[in-house]
Specification:
Shape: globular
Oligomer: single chain
Strand order of the largest sheet: 2-3-4-5-6-1-7
Number of domains: 1
Order of helices and strands: EEHHEEEHEHE
Largest sheet: 7 strands, mixed
Structural class: alpha+beta
CATH superfamily: Gcn5-related N-acetyltransferase (GNAT)
Length: 171
């Protein structure tokens, strides 16, 4: 194990007018809801995308654990496809009555740098407002993709706090 200092940045958006939308003009791009949220799909994305960024807290979850978590009110799973191929996902939760959290958000590495993250984040934020939220929250850390924080800021999120911690990472 290697010990590393990680900075977590907490961001929020408090009004739909704060969103600076950016859409992909690429043909064949779609964002669709997994309804009901599929435990297998959520675990697949979490592990296959998150593995690169040391997402470990749910890596050993069973399908039953995923299903129970996804069954919570306000939880939504969305999938980004490009020409029918899976490109990324986001998972929305509702930690408080009028607050939506973008709890997980990620693209497969081979789709990075194509503007798809901005497009998917725009869709995620728009969905939170459509669902009746009056606040959207998200966090990212220095282990995530280097464009994660710049993407959140470019779409209109504001930093509300940061904290630093030490984490043990596998070799």
């Amino acid at each position: 194990m290697t010990s590393i200092e990680v900075t977590i940045t907490y961001l929020e958006m408090e009004h739909p007018a704060m969103l600076r939308a950016k859409r992909s003009t690429r043909a064949g791009v779609a964002v669709t809801r997994s309804e009901p949220p599929s435990a297998a799909v959520a675990a697949h994305f979490y592990n296959d995308i998150g593995n690169e960024y040391f997402w470990t807290e749910r890596a050993e979850w069973t399908e039953r654990q995923w299903a129970d978590w996804l069954a919570k009110p306000g939880t939504e799973l969305w999938v980004l496809t490009v020409d029918g191929d899976e490109a990324g996902f986001f998972l929305l939760t509702q930690p408080a009555s009028r607050t939506k959290e973008i709890e997980y958000f990620g693209l497969f590495a081979w789709y990075a740098g194509q503007g798809l993250g901005a497009h998917m984040l725009t869709c995620a934020v728009e969905r939170t407002w459509e669902s009746g939220a009056d606040r959207v929250i998200v966090n990212t850390c220095t282990l995530d993709h280097k464009q994660a924080l710049p993407n959140y800021l470019a779409r209109g999120f504001e930093v509300v706090r940061t904290r630093t911690e030490w984490r043990e990472l596998p070799e």
